[in-house]
Amino acid sequence: xxxxxxxxxxxxxxxxxxxxxxxxxxxxxxxxxxxxxxxxxxxxxxxxxxxxxxxxxxxxxxxxxxxxxxxxxxxxxxxxxxxxxxxxxxxxxxxxxxxxxxxxxxxxxxxxxxxxxxxxxxxxxxxxxxxxxxxxxxxxxxxxxxxxxxxxxxxxxxxxxxxxxxxxxxxxxxx
Length: 175
Description:
With 175 residues, this protein is an alpha+beta fold. The chain folds into two domains: 1-32, no CATH class; 84-174, Orthogonal Bundle (Arc Repressor Mutant, subunit A), CATH 1.10.10. The protein is 39% helix and 10% strand. The chain is built from seven helices and five strands, in the order H-H-H-E-E-E-H-H-H-E-E-H. The chain has helices at 7-11, 17-27, 41-47, 86-97, 105-112, 125-143, 169-174; strands spanning 66-69, 74-77, 80-81, 155-158, 162-165. The protein has a three-stranded antiparallel beta sheet, with helices on one face. The protein has a two-stranded antiparallel ribbon with strand order 4-5. A hairpin with a 2-residue loop joins strand 2 and strand 3 (80-81). Helix 4 (86-97) packs across helix 6 and helix 5 (105-112) packs across helix 6 (125-143). The chain is globular, with a radius of gyration of 22 Å. Pfam families: Trans_reg_C (PF00486).
């Protein structure tokens, strides 16, 4: 361990004060919480919406040739009714309603499992959601063979955010 008093200044040139806050704000899209943070500040900061993300217009997002009826939870591919389990159809409907915005594992659990045999979050809920998504991807791939392979999986994982239904606008534009 070094006892050099100037080591911190060389290793961490902005080791505190306003310079460090400015650097953090500039490099992290305005996300900075000074520590120690009081109470629920870090949780609130993490949950707060971030600026700068363009909003998607309804006509910029489509899942055609998938046709999804949210009321009946029927999913069709080019007019053919897909053979999905009730849970798989419910997941597709929730992802469809989000219109490309990622839904976290916890949010999918809350919307697709809670009140449907579950009244709590079990310890392994994330694994259960992941396995359901895995089965759904296989089912969609098997039943939607007329969608080119480069568009599969139709349910994509957005790193550190959750799952989303793939935007198939480019596919529908080429047909």
